[in-house]
Amino acid sequence: MTAETSQTLDRGLRVLKLLADTDHGLTVTELSHKLGVNRTVVYRLLATLEQHALVRRDLGGRARVGLGVLRLGRQVHPLVREAAMPALRSLAEDIGATAHLTLVDGAEALAVAVVEPSWTDYHVAYRAGFRHPLDRGAAGRAILAARQKTPGDPGYTLTHGELETGACGAAAPLVGVTGVEGSVGVVMLADVVPERVGTRVVEAAREVAEALR
């Protein structure tokens, strides 16, 4: 540190870097140890960063990078969508259902990219910008399942009628994308999700994750 630099700003930026380097978030105690400062300082840093949506804390108190980081650069969201589009387009055409990339925004799931199939007679209308609670719908549930990493988890989540009557969904979480929580999935009008759809959304999620690294 020099006389021309801000210690508080430096610590805040270090918090963001530490959070960006973990997929599971960090507690106040863990951040305190890593920064070499007391918990009160960490609480103040997190509170300030939360006000700007640069950090969010889950129900368990773990801090994670917030989507405000993406909003700092206007071109980031378009770049994320652009990176995901080839995999989403392939998924939609292959399955014949609306495909989407969904990211965590606080306690909600936010659809940031949507591709509809070109060859079907009908499909579920699902638009970028659509929000729903994380604990409802395949997209959000897949993200929550990834946080828990339960043994025997098939790697994808199936739901029926949670967001729209008669519609079912399948989604798989993005894995290995530092600082970003999200999922890739499809939503379709069907009584049951065909067996191959689950493995197909896992494959698409892996493709999107690779494109975002």
From TrEMBL:
Has the keyword Lipid metabolism been applied to this entry? Answer: no
Residues covered by the IclR-ED domain:
68-213
Which InterPro entries would you find in this protein's record? ArsR-like_HTH, GAF-like_dom_sf, HTH_MetabolicPath_Reg, Tscrpt_reg_IclR_C, Tscrpt_reg_IclR_N, WH-like_DNA-bd_sf, WH_DNA-bd_sf
Q: Where is the HTH iclR-type domain?
A: 6-67
- Where are the annotated coiled coils located? none
Top-level taxon in the UniProt lineage: Bacteria
Q: Which Pfam families match?
A: HTH_IclR, IclR_C
Q: Which Gene3D superfamilies match?
A: 3.30.450.40, Winged helix-like DNA-binding domain superfamily/Winged helix DNA-binding domain
- Answer whether the UniProt record assigns the keyword Transcription regulation to this protein: yes
Q: Which UniProt keywords apply?
A: DNA-binding, Transcription, Transcription regulation
Which PANTHER family is this protein grouped with? HELIX-TURN-HELIX TRANSCRIPTIONAL REGULATOR, ICLR FAMILY (PTHR30136), HTH-TYPE TRANSCRIPTIONAL REPRESSOR ALLR (PTHR30136:SF24)
Identification of the protein by name: Helix-turn-helix domain-containing protein
The lineage is:
Bacteria, Bacillati, Actinomycetota, Actinomycetes, Kitasatosporales
